[in-house]
Every structure is written in C-alpha cells, then in structure tokens.
Amino acid sequence: MVGFVIGYFIRRILAEAKIGSAEQAAEKIVEEAEKEAEAARREILLEAKEEAHRLRTEIEQESRARRAELQRSERRLFQKEESLDRKGEAIERKEEAINRKERELDDIRNDLTQIYEEQRTELERLSGLSSDEARELLLKNIEDELHHEAAIMIRDIEAQTKEEADRKAREIIATAIQRYAADHVAETSVSVVALPNDEMKGRIIGREGRNIRALETLTGVDLIIDDTPEAVILSAFDPVRREVAKIALEKLINDGRIHPARIEEMVEKAQKEVDNIIKEEGEGAAIEVGVHGLNPDLIRLLGRLKFRSSFGQNVLKHSIEVAYLAAGMAAELGANVMVAKRAGLLHDIGKAVDHEVEGPHVQIGVDIARRYKESPEVIHAIAAHHGDEDALTIEAVLVQAADAVSAARPGARRETLEAYMKRLAKLEEVADSFEGVEKSFAIQAGREIRIMVKPDKIDDLTAVRLARDIVSKIEKELDYPGQIKVTVIRETRVVDYAK
Fold this sequence. Notes:
Layout: H1 2-127, H2 131-180, E1 192-194, H3 199-205, H4 210-219, E2 222-224, E3 231-235, H5 239-255, H6 260-289, H7 296-304, E4 309-310, E5 313-314, H8 315-333, H9 337-346, H10 361-371, H11 376-384, H12 394-408, H13 417-432, E6 437-443, E7 448-453, H14 460-477, E8 485-490
Parallel strand pairs: 7-8
Antiparallel strand pairs: 1-3, 2-3, 4-5, 6-7
C-alpha cells in the first residue's frame, strides 16, 4: 500500500509537471501565432492599401485620357460646324450667282431669238426662198460635200489596205521561206562517167564497136567518146535511161569484164537498182513532206523526178520545197494546209514523163492527177501553177507563189559543177595565152580574174593594153553570166641584205 501510494504521488507529481510544461508550450505557441497573425494582418493591410492606390491611379489616368479625348472630339465637332457654316454660306453665294447668270442667259436667249427671227425674215426677203427651201438647199450641199469626203476616205482606205496587204504578203512569204530554209539544191544527175585511164575507152568500144553498140542498144543512150581525158559522156533525153546507163557503165568499169553478155547483165541490174531508187525517193519525198495516201504509181512518178532537172535545179527537191513553202503560207493565211502541201508536191509531176508524152508538163500533170483520183482542188492547183488557167482557190495562188519563190531564190538554179570548173579553167587559159603573163587566178566564182605579169617584160602602159586585150578575147571566146573583172598586177620587188 505504501508503494502504491508513493507511486501514485510520484505519477501525480510527474503528471502535473508535464501539464505545466504543456501549458507553457501552448502559451508560447499561442503567442507566436498571435505574432504571426498580426504580421500577416499588417502585410494584408499594406497590400490592400497599395492595390487601392494603384487602382485609384489607373482610374485617374483613364479618366484624364477620356476627358482629353472628349475635349479633342468637341474641338473637331466645333471645327466641322464652322466648316459647314462656311460651305453653306459659299453655296448660298454660288446659288445666287447661278440664278443671276440664268436670268442673264434667259435675257440673252430672248435677244438671240429675236435677232434670229429678224435675220431669217431678212434672208427670206433677200433670197426669195422660204426657210424650208433654204433648209433643203443646205442639206443638199452638205450631202454633196459628204459624198466627196466619203470618196476621198474610200480612196485612202483602199490605198492603205493595199499597202497593208502587200506588207502582210511579204511577211507571210518571208515566214514561209524562213521556216523551210532549204540548202541549195543538189547538183543535177551528171552525164559524165570518169574512167581510171584512157585505155578503158578502147575496152568500152570493143572489137569493131560491139560493146558500145550493145550498151547503146540496151540503154537507149548515146555514148560520146571523144578527146576528153579519162571521161565518157552519156547523152540521152530520158534522165532515167541516162542514170541506168551511168550505173551500168560504172559497174562494168569496176568489174573489168566488158563484153555484150556482161553488158546485158549489168544493164538489167542497173535497171533494178534505179527502180528501187525511184521507189525509195518517191516514198521518202512523200514522208518528208507529210503527204499520205498517194497511189503507188504516183509515188514512182514522183521518184523519177530525182533524175529530172530544170535549169540545173533538181525537180524533186524543187517539188518538196514548193510543198513546204505553200503549206507554210497556207498555215499563216488559214487556208487548207494539206491541199496546198499535196498540190505543191505534185505540181511538176508531169515532168516525170514529159519526154514520153506529147504536150506541156502542166497538162500532163493534170491528166496524171485526174487518172489517180486526186481531189479537184489539187488538180486545179496543178493546172494553174503556171498561169495556164486562172487560179480560183487560195491554195492554187499559194502554189503559184511557192513555185516562183523556189525557182527564183539565190542558189536554186545554177550551172553544173563540170561547166563551172571548165569555165574557170578556160578563163585562166585565155589569160595565160598572152605573152608576159606569169600566172593568172580566177576568183569570185569566175567573176574576177587577177593576172600577175613579169615586170621586166610588161611596163605600166603595156599592162593597160594587156588588160584591154584580155577583156576583148574573153568577150569573144567565153559565155558567162554578168561581167568579169580583169585585174592586171605588175609588181617590182627589190631585195637586199644588210650584213
């Protein structure tokens, strides 16, 4: 019991001590809490005061800005009112001025009306015409003047239209030529066969002329074997036969075996080769130009034109060029391009057989085109391309123009290379035939010759006489286009050396 009592008191003492310390701690906590709350309250109050001050400042600034804007608006309104007042006053003054001018104009109009009536009465009295009669007379005079001015205007318009048409036509032709821009036509099929040596001439002639007779009989071509060195000339009106003979003779020369049986074999091979060439050339021309649906016989006739020439111009090349030019101009004018192109390609088809059929090549070409069912437009263009009949379609006119352009353009028709070279050689030969000439040079395609003379034999006066003599001989012995310039050059050089 004693221990229990002692324990009880001890526990009570300990409990009271704990309670006291707890109360002290609680009081301390309460004091700290009160301090913190006081501090927080003061901070909140300070922030509230600052926020209230900031809001008051913003409100004051905004109110000042609004007052300033209101003041500006009031000033603008006041200015506008003053401006409107001034404009109203100006308008009133203008209205008064206008009313015054209208009154003045009315007075002037009344005066003019009175004067007009008085003048009309006086004019009727002086002229003896009423106003209606005077009006009719005046209208008639005006009508006559208008007719005259209209005639002058029509004449000017016609002249301007003609000038514009000429300019447009030149542009169309130039455009068509530029689009095609063909090179110079190829040289015509030559009629000279080169020989490796002059001994070959005897082999071609054969024993008692049997080889040459066999070749002439099989080909229908005359062989001319003259003094021309290392060359045989083939003469025939038919260009295809001449080409067959040329190919056959070249084959015989290359083969070396020349006798009647071999000649017959080579002529047959040459004939087949030429037939293939004719077919290929005709098809190639049609494909190149873009003309389709031609009859095979018509294509072969077209290919024969490869061996036909007109004044040195290859007829097949000429036909292709005419087709291109006519098509180009038709495209510019809005005409039928295919009709112009087809008629341009076939316009000289009659020249393929003009040596076999009687009549001009135009009529022969019309008959051929009609036989192979060409369209009436194409046939008409062929018939009219040389003016044998009037051109009734624009395509026929274009084929006429293209044919003239192709034939007349520079380089289209020229002499063969052989004749050209012979002419140059003959020109130099004429110059070299005079005594005292050292060397001569034909230049500018034979349009000029320069002659170098020996200065010790030809003096200045003799050089003048020499030039005149050479000119006289050229005029007598040579055929040439245009004129030939003769230049005699006498040069003396003195050379020495300083040692």
